[in-house]
């Protein structure tokens, strides 16, 4: 019994050993090629699962099925409009034809080098055949965006509500737009389409190696140092212009308000003067009318009465009065008791 | 996240993946041991097998995890949190991933490098991608430069896609996010980016990143949020931007000064105008009332006078004359026929300032009286 059991177990062990060499699994995200003494046999196993092979003689090579990254190195490229820029790209790829792949590139490292060569030259060719702006903007939306809300910019800056901040920003934006009204180029291809062109160029080349280039992306597009400095200088001078403009606007506003102050002040004062004169005039006119009415009833008596008052007021106490002896007042004295009567008659 | 890559099958294709293999047991060893102590080995083996089966048949998934279960390498199901069953002995295997929200930062974590974009490394190195300023400095649609720092929060939405679609999902998300942000910023003017564009940029970047990840890569990732940490002008330009802000404040101050001056002057002037007007009203009252008073008085006097004009006139005249005579400094009475009066007065030392009245006669007076009498 023991020998039977041991034999059975031995057979089982050997069977397991052989079958384990005859079976292999392809995990999810991988594909496999069965090779016989290094020579690929049959189609690539692209679906995950359990597969069989001839034990010991055949071997299995596993190849990535998942998306792989390619990371470019920044390099300097002149654009069509002679701007020197630094371009950095990245790409994603995968192995779609494992058989082609292992026969041509063999492993991922060589594939990365192959992709570098293709993508970088495609990038270089495409970038240098186009103006810089094509690698920056995707659409012409920036051109269509005429300073929207210009009306807002004239809105009162110091309105206390919450929208004031936004208004101010909008007005700042519009102002900046006015100051920097340099002609913006139109883009005809655009960043996204340009990336696709680069990818298309490289894609055909790489298909030969069983590689599918999924996407090339322009990561960084940056000015070369000297260009960058001059661009900064431009920005600084723009800002200075804007700052000057704000200060000047402030002074202008101030002057306007000062003018209004003066205007309002004069208006108030002159209006008051006019009304005062009107009121006084009306009152004086009325007074004259009243006097005229009163005096009109007996003008002679008024003259007499008023003259006596004028004498009383006008002739001061230090006046030296020289009277002619034949003055009426003196008649009584000079001509006797009948003097006054004579004079009156 | 990290243990995704821990469990991850090595990308070096010359080796077999490290999946549990049944073929590594040495049969001779087994037979020898079996012969030595058959029963114990058999029982022990049985117990060990059962224990191993039990131990390797169950696994737990934490609430913030999901497990992707594979049978012979092929995807079977995504296990939910809790205790889960699998076939032992390498038939089933699983990969656990977290469903927590992960965050990637861009352009954050380094000092704001001034012009580092082009200054230091003209041809760059692979690591230059990690240089925060090279990530954050980007060209705007008007070919200027803005510095944008942002972060992306994402979450695994479909564990199966996330695990099997790419070898390095984190790297893809980073690269796509960098490219997308530059695409979005590249479509806007620098001032728009720096002022009002912020929220719009974050929104557009989020939508676009999601779209690319879904359509081109089928990543099984959901972008939770794109947050713009800071949007600023590049360091060399920053002072001039600050100066603009200062200029805005200067402007506001100038306006405020002028307005406070206005507020100081005008209300006072209005008050004064009101005062003058009221005072004029007062004057008007005075003038009119005086006139009325005078008029009334005159009317009354005239009424009485007309009852006895001659008597009254004489009386008034004499009263006046009396008053005047009594008040005068000196009264001289001179014969009308006398000539050369002045020398006498010179001798009398009359002060030059004093007024001398020479009444030639009372003819004028007489006339009045005559007319009144008539």
Could you characterize what this model shows?
The complex is a heterodimer of chains A (about 350) and B (about 375). By secondary structure, chain A is an alpha+beta fold. Chain A has helices at about 1-20, 100-105, 110-130, 140-145, 150-155, 165-180, 190-205, 225-295, 300-315, 330-335, 340-345, and strands at about 25, 30-35, 40-45, 50, 60-65, 70, 75-80, 85-95, 210-225, 320-325. Chain A has eleven helices and ten strands. In chain A, strands 6, 7, 8 and 9 form a four-stranded antiparallel sheet that branches. The longest helix of chain A has about 70 residues, at about 225-295. The radius of gyration of chain A is 56 Å and the shape is rod-shaped. Chain A starts with a helix and ends with a helix. The model of chain A is unreliable at about 145-165 (pLDDT under 50). Chain B is an alpha+beta fold and about 375 residues long. In chain B, helix 7 crosses helix 9. The interface between A and B is large, with 158 and 163 residues. Strand 10 (about 320-325) of chain A pairs parallel with strand 11 of chain B, so a sheet runs across the interface.
């Amino acid at each position: 019994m023991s020998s039977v059991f041991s034999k059975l177990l031995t057979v089982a062990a050997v069977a397991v050993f052989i079958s384990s060499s005859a079976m292999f699994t392809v995990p999810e995200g991988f594909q496999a090629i069965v090779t016989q003494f290094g020579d690929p046999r049959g189609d690539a196993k692209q679906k995950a699962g359990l597969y069989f092979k001839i034990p010991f003689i055949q071997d299995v090579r596993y190849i990535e099925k998942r998306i792989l990254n390619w990371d470019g190195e920044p390099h300097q490229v002149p654009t069509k409009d002679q701007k020197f820029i630094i371009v950095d790209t990245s790409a994603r790829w995968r192995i779609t034809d494992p058989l082609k792949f292992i026969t041509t590139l063999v492993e991922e490292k060589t594939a990365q080098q192959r992709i570098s060569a293709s993508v970088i030259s495609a990038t270089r060719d495409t970038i240098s055949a186009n103006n810089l702006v094509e690698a920056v903007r995707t659409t012409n939306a920036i051109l269509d965006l005429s300073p929207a809300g210009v009306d807002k910019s004239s809105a009162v800056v110091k309105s206390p509500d919450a929208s004031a901040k936004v208004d101010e920003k909008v007005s700042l934006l519009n102002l900046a737009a006015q100051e920097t009204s340099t002609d913006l180029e139109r883009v005809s291809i655009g960043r996204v389409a340009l990336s696709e062109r680069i990818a298309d160029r490289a894609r055909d080349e790489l298909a030969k190696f069983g590689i599918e280039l999924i996407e090339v992306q322009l990561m960084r597009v940056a000015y070369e140092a000297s260009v960058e400095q001059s661009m900064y200088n431009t920005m600084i001078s723009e800002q200075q212009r804007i700052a000057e403009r704000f200060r000047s606007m402030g002074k202008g506003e101030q002057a306007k308000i000062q003018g209004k102050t003066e205007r309002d002040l004069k208006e108030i004062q002159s209006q008051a003067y006019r009304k005062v004169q009107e009121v006084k005039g009306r009152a004086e006119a009325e007074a004259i009318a009243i006097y005229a009415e009163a005096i009109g009833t007996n003008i002679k008596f008024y003259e007499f009465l008023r003259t006596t008052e004028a004498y009383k007021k006008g002739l001061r106490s230090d006046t030296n009065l020289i009277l002619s002896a034949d003055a009426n007042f003196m008649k009584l004295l000079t001509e006797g008791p009948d003097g006054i009567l004579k004079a009156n008659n | 996240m990290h243990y995704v890559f821990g469990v991850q099958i090595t990308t070096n294709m010359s080796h077999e993946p490290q999946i549990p293999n049944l073929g590594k047991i040495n049969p001779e060893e087994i037979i020898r041991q079996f012969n030595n102590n058959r029963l114990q080995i058999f029982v022990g083996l049985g117990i060990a097998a059962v224990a191993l089966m039990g131990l390797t048949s169950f696994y737990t998934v934490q609430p913030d995890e999901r497990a992707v279960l594979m049978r012979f390498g092929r995807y079977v199901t995504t296990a939910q949190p809790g205790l889960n069953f699998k076939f032992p002995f390498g038939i089933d295997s699983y990969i656990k991933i977290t469903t927590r929200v992960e965050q990637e930062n861009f352009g954050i974590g380094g000092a704001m490098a001034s012009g580092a974009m082009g200054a230091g490394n003209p041809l760059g190195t692979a690591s230059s991608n990690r240089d925060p300023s090279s990530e954050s400095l980007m060209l705007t649609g008007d070919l200027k430069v803005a510095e944008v720092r942002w972060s992306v929060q994402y979450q695994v939405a479909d564990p199966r896609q996330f695990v099997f679609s790419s070898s390095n999902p984190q790297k893809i998300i980073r690269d796509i996010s960098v490219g997308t942000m530059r695409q979005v910023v590249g479509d806007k003017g620098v001032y728009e980016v720096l002022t009002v564009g912020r929220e719009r940029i974050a929104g557009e970047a989020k939508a676009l990143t999601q779209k690319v990840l879904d359509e081109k890569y089928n990543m099984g990732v959901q972008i939770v949020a794109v947050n713009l940490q800071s949007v600023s002008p590049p360091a060399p330009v920053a002072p001039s931007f600050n100066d603009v802000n200062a200029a805005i404040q200067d402007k506001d101050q100038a306006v405020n000064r002028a307005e406070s001056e206005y507020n100081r002057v005008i209300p006072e002037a209005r008050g004064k105008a009101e005062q003058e007007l009221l005072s004029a009203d007062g004057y008007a009252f005075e003038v009119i009332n005086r006139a009325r008073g005078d008029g009334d008085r005159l009317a009354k006097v005239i009424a009485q006078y007309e009852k006895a004009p001659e008597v009254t006139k004489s009386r008034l005249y004499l009263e006046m004359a009396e008053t005047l005579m009594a008040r005068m400094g000196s009264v001289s009475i001179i014969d009308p026929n006398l000539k050369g009066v002045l020398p006498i007065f010179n001798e009398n030392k009359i002060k030059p300032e004093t007024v001398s009245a020479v009444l030639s006669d009372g003819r004028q007076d007489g006339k009045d009286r005559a007319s009144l009498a008539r």
